[in-house]
Amino acid sequence: MTSSIKVVWGLSVIVSAGAAVAGAARLAEGDPAGAADDAGASLAAENAVIDRAVEETPLERYTEDAAELVVALRSLMQRGLEEVKAARDEKDAVRLTCVNEPVATMKGVLRVGEDANASLLEALSLQNAAEARREFRKLKTSQRRMAALLRDAQSCVGALSSESTSAIELSVDESLVGSDPYYGNPNFFFDPQNAVAEGETNKLGQNDDLTVRPPPASGVS
């Protein structure tokens, strides 16, 4: 029975990977609706595999398998917390903010899984097979969700990784520069301090026509 479940789970990984690649391709082609359909199909395939695994697992195996799932959930949680610690030790606010979000969700998923394990044991003690299967399914789903959240946390990049390393190089077309006689000559620009005043400055304010012009652009008069 165990080997058949592993085969089914492997098939789920193949189906999910294929749907994910197809969804990414559709999204890149500008078809978000198609990408969403592929993501929904992938999730439906994974749920179908979980349902099949739950149904094929004998009730007498639930206690042992559930205990292993709880251990796996706690291990995933520990790895998520290690990602947070690494980002904090690096003093990288960008990465820390990114990692905190999925890890915070992982804490909630872990609680759901642990509660499902307790409810499973209670259902088994009452010989309630239907309820036991529901709680066992919660555990399987929690494990899948935790693994996905850990991948999200591990894919976070920090400020240094997100910095651009591109460079801009400027060049001057010498043929264009040569056609400008004033290129490189600061005397071309008007400086009020060097302005030349013409007229009777002694009569300023008494209807005198005072003309102010910039100095010649070149030394040639």
Can you describe this structure in just a few lines?
The chain has helices at 2-28, 32-56, 59-89, 93-125, 129-154, 159-162, 174-178; strands at residues 196-198, 211-213.
Secondary-structure topology with pairs:
Blueprint lengths: L1 H27 L3 H25 L2 H31 L3 H33 L3 H26 L4 H4 L11 H5 L17 E3 L12 E3 L8
Antiparallel strand pairs: 1-2
Helix pairs in contact: 1-2, 2-5, 3-4, 3-5, 4-5
What does it look like?
This protein has seven helices and two strands. α2 (32-56) crosses α5, α3 runs antiparallel to α4 (93-125) and α4 runs antiparallel to α5. It starts with a helix and ends in an 8-residue tail after the last strand. Among the domains are: 1-56; 59-156. A two-stranded antiparallel ribbon has the order 1-2. With 221 residues, the protein is mainly alpha-helical. It is 68% helix and 3% strand.
Features:
221 residues; mainly alpha; two-stranded antiparallel ribbon; 2 strands; 3% strand; disordered N terminus
Mean pLDDT: 74
Q: Please provide the count of β strands.
A: 2
Question: What summary fits the major beta sheet?
Answer: 2 strands, antiparallel
Shape: elongated
Distance between the termini: 105 Å
